[in-house]
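Note on ligand handling. Small-molecule inputs were canonicalized before submission; formal charges were left as drawn, and no protonation-state enumeration was performed. Where a ligand contained multiple stereocentres, the stereochemistry in the source SMILES was retained. For zinc ion, this procedure yielded the string shown in the input block below.
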Amino acid sequence: MPIYEFRCRECKKKFQVVRSIAEYDPKKVTCPKCNTKKVDRVWSGISVQTSKKS
Ligand SMILES: [Zn+2]
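Structure output:
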């Protein structure tokens, strides 16, 4: 399952979310610490398979 890394804009905490592709919805991701939805996706060398076009 892919791991999505986020950083909270409020508390600056980085956290990871593990979701299947089907369940993953960035609008539903909240900070585990302060529960805000003001989170930014972080791309830190995590290889996530995106859409395959072949
Ligand atoms: Zn937070």
